[in-house]
Write a structure and sequence with these properties.
The complex is a heterodimer.
Chain A: H1 8-38, H2 43-71, H3 84-89, E1 108-112, H4 116-128, E2 132-136, H5 139-148, E3 153-157, H6 165-174, E4 183-188, H7 192-200, E5 205-209, H8 213-260, E6 271-277, E7 285-291, E8 296-304, H9 309-324, H10 335-345, E9 356-364, E10 369-375, E11 380-385, E12 391-396, E13 414-417, E14 423-427, H11 444-454, H12 460-472, E15 481-487
Parallel strand pairs in A: 1-2, 1-3, 3-4, 4-5
Antiparallel strand pairs in A: 6-15, 7-8, 8-9, 9-10, 10-13, 11-12, 11-14, 14-15
Chain B: E1 2-7, E2 13-21, H1 23-37, E3 43-47, E4 51-54, H2 56-71, E5 75-79, H3 83-91, E6 98-99, H4 103-111
Parallel strand pairs in B: 2-3, 2-4, 3-5, 5-6
Antiparallel strand pairs in B: 1-2
Helix pairs in contact in B: 1-2
The chains are: A alpha/beta, B alpha/beta.
């Protein structure tokens, strides 16, 4: 420092060097005054206040002399010498609000200052508030510490040799590991420009030297509180994400289980395949088929109202009843009887207010007759070749109330002859009730036309699903997609 | 989903349901709908002219109200469904609770206690 006052930087350095020891005197004497009051040595208090008064007067002199003598027109914020009202505001001077040191804070703070005595004053001050304090003597050490350990707050001096506070702040905010740690800048009163730059770069707040004990405590406390709220928010977010991940896993597991109870595709005596694509939330579809005896083949598909694991539990239960033929005194070759018995067994009041729709068909092979009944379910499609070789479709529908709605409903069956080469599609409403981007629903007629053209193709079920996906646009379909196809 | 409620002088209630009775729509209107359907002897006209879609949970909501009205000696009649909504309700087996005529006819039926 050959000529410290020849440039603004040199002047700032000089001001810094002159103020630093005076600030330390103020800091120590304030703490000593608190100790003196706490331990009943009140005679010392007035002496300590005199020291503080003299120190503040000296600070004022440093500023006014330097500004007047060297900087001319530049007028920094003046530092007032010690004034009565500042003393009254001190929470440690037996203040009337009574909160002073009884308000303890908790947290890990890193204090960064190149001046050893400054660090010592700050560390002692913070420890009095109950904080755990570590300190760093320069910017590089500070960066190494915040990256290696966890801190709730960093108090960062702006003016330091080599790596200054602003650069440390910039690097902390650029690093995802340290970006979330709040930083309070410590500055001399003539460093307001630097403070503004730091606030813009992400500092939470600033504290002017010499520290006003009330400001120091209030700003640190506000920062720590904010940090603890942000930490709590982060923990809750993590918990929600974890819960969501577990739920998704369980839904996927449930979907996997539902799929596992479906019978495998067959090629003889009937060629049967199916496609099942559960919605994200699992939609409550289930189906099955089996030979009741040598002549009678049953195929059935049901759809429980609503979505989720609850709907799936009912769909699996009901499908197992059909699969195992376990309804009392019921002829499973008679679709109407099966639906009536199921309806009484699964009244919605006893099933958590859930109902289901069901299509149930029985094919009598010797007579090529298909008997079928429906409980509120969409029609199945029978595609049969006409004389020209094109496929015409027939809707197999028998109106019946949804299963579980009311007791003792009679379900009537209908029947049709199945020509050789015909294909039967048993389906759910998720195969056609698909909205496009404008919310317009596909209707059954359009779906039927698509099936007439593509339904018998080997990849017809995949094609239908792809067609619906394209129509729906982005995102998964809202409902389960399930279809069973049988070639007679 | 919106709900318009109107109580006529003789205690007959007309409930209009506007929007889509899908999963979210039904959830948003269900509690209010049941509340309006709740009476000593419920006599309810449900106007579906502004209903664009009825999904499985919408059907459940209508069905619950129909059953609850019936259990208390009352009745629920649905009117003015759009074609797609009518076919959904018929498919579910609720066609017998749909009235082809309009509100006046429904009110007359309920007033006569039929």
């Amino acid at each position: 420092m050959s000529n410290p006052v020849s440039s603004p930087d040199g002047l700032a350095q000089l001001r810094h060097d002159l103020r630093t020891p005076v600030n330390q005197i103020i800091g120590y004497s304030e703490m000593l005054e608190e100790d003196a009051e706490a331990s009943g040595h009140s005679p010392y208090v007035s002496d300590l206040r005199k020291i503080q008064f003299a120190a503040r007067t000296l600070l004022g002199l440093v500023d006014t002399r330097l500004d007047a003598g060297v900087l001319g027109g530049f007028a920094p914020v003046p530092t007032k010498p010690a004034q009565a009202h500042e003393r009254v505001q001190s929470p440690f001077a037996k203040s009337a609000d009574g909160e002073n040191e009884s308000v303890r804070m908790a947290g890990r703070v890193l204090a960064v200052d190149d001046n050893e005595n400054n660090r010592d004053v700050l560390t002692r001050r913070l420890q009095r508030h109950g904080l755990t304090v570590e300190s760093a003597a320069d910017g590089l050490q500070a960066l190494a510490l915040v990256r290696a350990r966890s801190f709730d707050l960093v108090l960062l001096d702006i003016m330091m040799p080599e790596l200054d506070g602003y650069s440390v702040l910039q690097q902390m905010k650029a690093d995802p590991l340290t970006r979330h740690i709040p930083v309070i800048m410590i500055s001399a009163l003539d460093e307001l420009d630097g403070v503004v730059r730091c606030i813009e770069a992400g500092a939470e707040d600033y504290l002017p030297k010499p520290f006003n004990p009330t400001l120091l405590r209030a700003r640190i406390s506000a920062c720590l509180e904010k940090k603890s709220l942000r930490d709590a928010e982060q923990r809750h977010l993590q918990l929600i994400e974890e819960t969501k991940r577990r739920l998704d896993e369980e839904l996927a597991e449930a979907a996997h289980y539902v799929r596992s109870i479906f019978p495998p595709p067959t090629s003889a005596p009937l060629a049967i395949d199916w496609k099942y694509e559960p919605s994200t939330e699992l939609g409550g579809d289930a189906f099955g088929y089996h030979w009741i005896d040598a002549d009678h083949f049953a195929v059935y598909l049901l759809d429980v109202c609503g979505h989720g694991v609850g709907a799936s539990l009912l769909s699996v239960t009901a499908i197992n009843v059909l699969r195992s033929g376990s309804l009392p005194a019921t002829d499973f070759r008679n679709p109407g009887a099966v639906l009536s018995a199921l309806n009484n067994a699964f009244q919605m009041e006893r099933q958590n207010n859930m109902y289901f729709t069901l299509w149930y068909g029985v094919y009598h092979a010797p007579s090529r007759t298909l008997h079928h009944a429906s409980g509120g379910h969409p029609p199945s499609l029978l595609l049969a070749p006409d004389a020209t070789g094109a496929f015409a479709s027939q809707r197999l529908i028998s109106p019946g109330l949804i299963i579980g709605a009311m007791e003792d409903v009679v379900y009537a069956a209908q029947s049709c002859i199945v020509p050789p080469g015909a294909h039967l599609m048993v389906l759910c409403d998720g195969c056609y009730e698909v909205a496009d981007a404008e919310g317009e629903m596909l209707d059954f007629d359009e779906f039927e036309k698509f099936m007439q053209l593509n339904g018998i193709r080997p990849d017809g079920l995949d094609q239908l699903f792809q067609w619906l996906r394209v129509r729906h646009g982005e995102g998964p379909l809202d409902d389960d997609f399930s279809m069973v196809r049988i070639q007679f | 989903m919106n709900l318009v409620f109107n109580e006529l002088s003789d205690g007959i209630r007309v409930i209009g349901l506007g929007g889509s009775l899908d999963l979210a729509g039904t959830a948003s209107v269900e509690t209010r709908f049941y509340a309006h359907c709740n009476a000593e002897v419920p006599r309810i006209v449900v106007d579906l002219s502004a209903t664009t879609f009825v999904g499985s949970l919408g059907i459940r909501m209508l069905l619950q109200a129909i059953k609850s009205a019936k259990a208390r000696g009352g009745r629920l009649i649905m009117i003015h469904p759009a074609a797609a909504v009518a076919s959904t309700l018929e498919l579910a087996g609720l066609g017998s609770f749909l009235l082809k005529g309009g509100a006046d006819e429904a009110v007359a039926l309920l007033a006569a206690g039929k």
